[in-house]
Amino acid sequence: MRYSVFLILFCSQLLFAQSPKPVSDFSEEREKTWVDSIYNQLTFEEKLGQLFMVAAYSNKDAAHVKSVEKLVTDYKVGGLIFFQGGPVRQARLTNFYQSKSKVPLFMGIDAEWGLSMRLDSTYRYPWNMTLGAIQDIKLIEKMGQQMAIQAKRMGLHFNFAPVLDINTNPRNPIIGNRSFGENKENVTKRALALMKGIQSENVYATGKHFPGHGATENDSHYTLPLVNFTKERLEDVEFYPYKKLFREGLSSVMVAHLNVPSLEPRPNYPSSISYEVVTNVLKKELGFDGLIFTDALNMKGASNFKQPGDIDLEAFLAGNDVLLFAENVPVAIEKFCQAYNDSILSDDRIEYSVKKILKYKYRIGLNKYKPIDLNNLVSDLNASEFDDLNYQLYENAITVLKNADNELPIGALENENIAYIKLGDDKNETFLNTLRTYAPVTEIALDSVPLMLDKLKNYNKIIVGFHKADGAWKKHDFTPKELSLLNLFAGSNNVILTVFAKPYTLLSIESFDVFKGVVLAYQNNDIAQTVAAEVIFGGIGAKGKLPVSINNAFKVNDGLKTNKINRLGFTTPQNVGMNPYILAKIDKLAQKAIDGKMTPGLQIVVARKGKIFYQKSFGYRDYKNTDKVTNQDVYDLASLTKILSTLPNVMQLYDKKKLEMDAKLGTMLPVFADTDKKNITLKDMLTHQARFQAWIPFYQSTLDSTKRPSKKYYRLTYSPEFPLQVDENLYLRKDYSDTIIKRIAMSKLLPKKEYKYSDFSFILLKDYLEKTTHKTLDVLSDAAFYKPLGASTMTYNPLRKMDMDIIPPTEIDKYYRYTKVQGYVHDMGAAMQDGVAGHAGLFANAVDVAKMMQMYLQKGNYGNHQYFSEKTFDDFNNCAFCKEGNRRGIGFDKPQLGKEGPTCGCVSMTSFGHTGFTGTMAWADPDKEIVYVFLSNRTFPESTVNKLSKENIREDIQKVIYEAITD
């Protein structure tokens, strides 16, 4: 009879070219001894039990556990395939079932994009379709390796992946996103990489769904799909990846339930139980001698054809080794015994598959089975290094399909007015928030069409985000209404369409001519949303290629490269050479500051190599503990104003040769021409050795005898004579700014020329800049730096642009303004200048501060905009008087020369930055390519006791950052 053909294939020593690397102490002799020993201990029925791999769930009740236990103990099944549940529950059940098994069990799972395909609380990688866009194949191999590490941690031996189906049918209801694409070479390269990665960690990979499920119209879970191709076509396309992976050592194959007339002549006969398909084609013609699984036998594509037991027997006789998800093992074993008694089933046939299964068990180390260690299981399965790779995967996958007029990346931000519209029904917050880290972006809510079109007239660029739930089998289509809206928006506006859904979503768009840009992000999760925003603004360049065709609009492998334009991007610590476990100390130090009431709240941003890898907020805006600090909150920067507003404007004048280092104060400001300060140079002012007093409490002379603001100088409401707003209901006389300058002119110089920190230099430089440029400092800085940088929160007088709700207060003022200072500058001298001063007054969030510091780090360049020359930066970042004991650069603070100073003492001497009275710090280090920003309102509710400084919180955090560097 035909089943005796198996004898020709059987040999005493299987080569197992398809196995992953064997256990470290592997020897064929020991393997044979173990296999023969186990085999000879088994009864006939127990040998049959090894052929079955039954379904197990960790989210079902005790009755289910009992039923699986019975199959393990009474019927000696060979393995379990786990489905839905959770990692700890599954691990406990794995240990339990293994403890009950006479022969160690195979454990398998469908984990095509990671364990999260089946288990909660586990890591999710991109779908295969997303991987299909990636050109750096090594990344996919690394993903396979990580998936295998996670599988091993769960005591799993098989990952039923990769999917080798070539998805040539866009309407395929079951494969779709599970495929790497529609091109056989592309699919093969990526599947091979994933296989190599999985098997490199001694986990078996399983190619599926043979002979090829990619062209089907139906789902084999519910019916028997037809594959109506010639055998020549199957050999050329569908078999192509199998042939390649067989040569490279694929361990196992899963056979699908398909109707393939060109391979199996019997009408509507499932391929999974076809001798022609499994033995003649897969084993003989293609030469595969690895382990062969059926697809799940409970699927209607098989179970509609024969009853439980009969279908199992037929599948085994067809040539399969392992019968997956058998619905009734006791009945199946009875059927097998009957077939054996009827001489339909031979000892040799049973021995062939059972010994093959036992050899695979030996090769995977089940001869020395160890239970799963439950300690730290969830954290191990969600280790930070998995995020490192996931960022890289999405950075390489995001695909730009259209870029008319080089719209991407968005360049000159000072000329842009950008709106964002959300379509779809899933989350979009990360995308919108990341867009807003690059530029001001206004969300336009869906409303009546005329109202929306009217609002959109105010914007010259519209980003439309289409967000659909991140499910491989979920519907991702545009609704007719959404398609209509898209055409209306794009008809009269510059629209960049960004699709967070599978590529086939684009099929319903009739014409892409109306769009300026089309970005395909493939999936709707936080990393995809972050990276897509980076691509749009040039934080990274696009690299992905389309894995499938979209009508006649786009072909396979279409994808435009875009440029990275040295704006800050986002990534994980290890991607920029930082140890995340050491960085965790930052959180503890921040919490120490909060718990110790050193500050109500704070923001921290750390970037390296042009990427923000740490961005967190801690605590609350005040001690009511009701409003948590967010990354969008805007802090009073205090003296950071000196290097973020006044200094860069001075540097630009110097760069244009309109100002010299030896320029004298008497020439710069004529009011000083006849004073003892006339010969003070710009260089001396910027290095704090101009012999100026540290400060003058200007406000005190404007108070009356009761220490309240005097009516001589103040009014409670605005008027042309009292226009300088000090606080919400307090306005200073218009001539007082000149009074401040005059008082500095008349002030007494210190006796010795040495380093003495003073606000005077920057107060005077503000006056000089405004008189030279004929612009106020706030307008000057905004136009020259903040708008082109996209630093939209960096501003003086923030309440004129934003709500008070996002601005933490700085003090309960009991000596001057007698109110809670919130949204108005804390520094009294700056407040007396209408909130705009050269030494204080600036507000921003930490990311926008980081942009300015990154611009300095890049020697005057950011977003391909050169703000001043590299030489100018080097001239100012120069410790000109270090030999004299003055650590200061030209405007910048620099590391301490002795024990005391502004830094941790662990930064390079090329580093630079500044600190601020409200509890702020911004520091950049060219040697290590690090930017560190710390913002707080430590002055609230009372400023005199500086516990934050005494406890060295800012410096200790900086020290942790440097300890975390790994390269």
Outline:
With 967 residues, the protein is an alpha/beta fold.
Q: What does this protein structure show overall?
A:
The protein has 967 residues and is an alpha/beta fold. Helix content is 35%, strand content 13%. The protein contains 33 helices and 30 strands. The protein has an eight-stranded parallel beta sheet with strand order 7-6-5-4-3-2-1-8. Strands 9-14-13-12-10-11 form a six-stranded mixed beta sheet, with helices on both faces. The protein has a six-stranded mixed beta sheet with strand order 15-17-16-30-29-28, with helices on both faces. α5 (87-100) links the parallel β2 (79-82) and β3 (106-109). The chain starts with 5 loop residues before the first helix and ends with a helix. The model is unreliable at 1-18 (pLDDT under 50).
